[in-house]
Amino acid sequence: MRKGIYFFIFSATFGLLFFLIIKFLEVLNYNWVEIWLRDWIGLQILAMLFVLSLGAVALAFLAQVWRAQTIRARLHPALEQIRKGQVYTSLDDPVLDSDLRALGQSIHSLQQKRQETENENLVEKAKVVTQERQRIARDLHDTVSQELFAASMIVSGLRQSRLDVAGIQKELQGVEGILNTAQNDLRILLLHLRPRELEGRNLVSALETLLAEVEEKSLLKIRLEVSVDQLPSEIENHCYRIVQEFISNTLRHAEAQHLEVYLKQTAGQLQLKMVDDGLGFNQQENKEFHYGLANMEERVEDMAGRMTLRTAPYQGVAIDIRIPILKGEQDENSISG
């Protein structure tokens, strides 16, 4: 390609010189044919001038090619020096040197911004870890620690009491209830300690594992219905954490016996519905549940979706989430209720 360009430039230069000589002869009222046939001296002079002109043009052209090749050979090391943040060797070309300085400044600025972003991410991750540790410590102190302390005090009191067998059985039943509550609170804490991401699994597999574990370690009867195609990883992670949050709230507050999770993908939309048959709550009064609800709403907003909550005291909780997706299997059936 480059050789073709050079040949074109050389040919155009040769044609231009020939054209100028013809015009020069016309201005001097010389006839080209007469010079060719009769005036050999004039013809030799013209030929010499033509060759000299052509040689000068060729030399100028070759000089430019050589300069371009030289700059090209020096440009790569200069770009490599700029990439490494070093002071590059000048190319002795004011325009290129100016462009390279601007490029170096831009790269340096981008590197600084990237480093600042990475530092901010590290600080944010450290902040999240600290907050999570504080939350776990607070939850352990407010729930399990207090419950175990209460059970310990009751058992300690029994050693000094003079209760009959019926009284002791009643106290032990109370201790059993406290320990069962502590065990349930520990399950909730362990649920929050599960990985925030899917660890290479798809959403369906992760939900099956999570719900099977919850059903095994609690009194909940769980139902899972899934009909999905492949989903973007970001949507899968958000949905997984939303289900985790809902289960946590159900175990902590609902006193439910059944929990149902439906996940259905239709054309252009993903529907996630979660239902329990627990105590429900008054949306204007229950502040404890609102924290988990706010987390779910934030995740839904990140996916440009919408969330509908239906609940009332002693009527359970139903959350219906609709998330737009770019593609999906056509399915006209939706989860009703």
Radius of gyration: 41 Å
Q: Which architecture of the largest domain per CATH?
A: 2-Layer Sandwich
Structural class: alpha+beta
Number of strands: 5
CATH topology of the largest domain: Heat Shock Protein 90
Tell me about this structure:
This protein is of the alpha+beta class and 337 residues long. It folds into three domains: 2-92; 112-193; 201-337, 2-Layer Sandwich (Heat Shock Protein 90), CATH 3.30.565. The protein is 67% helix and 11% strand. The protein has a five-stranded mixed sheet with strand order 1-2-3-5-4, covered by helices on one side. Strand 4 and strand 5 form a beta hairpin. Helix 4 packs antiparallel against helix 5 and helix 7 runs antiparallel to helix 8 (287-302). Residues 328-334 have low confidence and may be disordered.
Supply database-style keywords.
5 strands, Heat Shock Protein 90, 337 residues, 5-stranded mixed beta sheet, alpha+beta
In short:
The chain has helices at 2-27, 32-37, 40-83, 94-160, 165-193, 203-217, 233-254, 287-302, and strands at residues 221-227, 258-266, 269-276, 306-311, 317-324. With 337 residues, the chain is an alpha+beta fold. It folds into 3 domains: 2-92; 112-193; 201-337, Heat Shock Protein 90, CATH 3.30.565.
Give the secondary structure arrangement, pairings included:
Blueprint: H1 2-27, H2 32-37, H3 40-83, H4 94-160, H5 165-193, H6 203-217, E1 221-227, H7 233-254, E2 258-266, E3 269-276, H8 287-302, E4 306-311, E5 317-324
Parallel strand pairs: 1-2
Antiparallel strand pairs: 2-3, 3-5, 4-5
Helix pairs in contact: 1-3, 3-4, 4-5, 5-7, 6-7, 7-8
